[in-house]
Amino acid sequence: MNERAAATLAIGVLGAASFLVTVYLVTVPIWALFIAWASFVAAGGGVTGVRRSLPMAIVGILSATATLLVAHVLGAGPWATALCIVFGAGALVAIGRFELFSSTPASFFGFASTVGIIAVTGRSIADAPSVSHPAAIALMAMVLGTVFGYVAELLAGALSRADRIVGGVAGQCT
Predict the structure, then answer these.
(1) What angle do CA 65, 19, 32 make, to 5 degrees?
(2) Which residues cross the membrane (predicted)?
(3) Other CB atoms closer than 10 Å to residue 132's CB: what's the count?
């Protein structure tokens, strides 16, 4: 199977599996999982993609949490929130000069996923810590999305290699 067909099959099957996981096992928004998966791919995939995207997504979640908690303390009005975002989002860009934190888009994916989860769940960032806290849901989604991206890459590679091995053996028999 060529690489494109292998990737198509792997991503299709694992995309469906990830949906079922989010419905029945770990209730996180599928869109947040897909954002993490895309972040992994955009960061280069493989171990490099994991190292670059997941830590920065976590940093983004932490930044969103701190930003929104400070905004909450300040009354959560639009101007207070906007001012807090200046610092929260600005910090994500500023730390990008360090290699470990250079995948700035991944941090914004984590930040945005946290804010989006707050919007769709109606929960507050100031809620008590729990597995249903918006930051915890975002973290679970980022980890799951990265895992699904990594496994999809491995599966696509295995399907592509298996075809080359079978094709090579068949070619030797003729």
Answers:
(1) 20
(2) 28-47, 54-73, 79-96, 108-126, 132-152
(3) 12
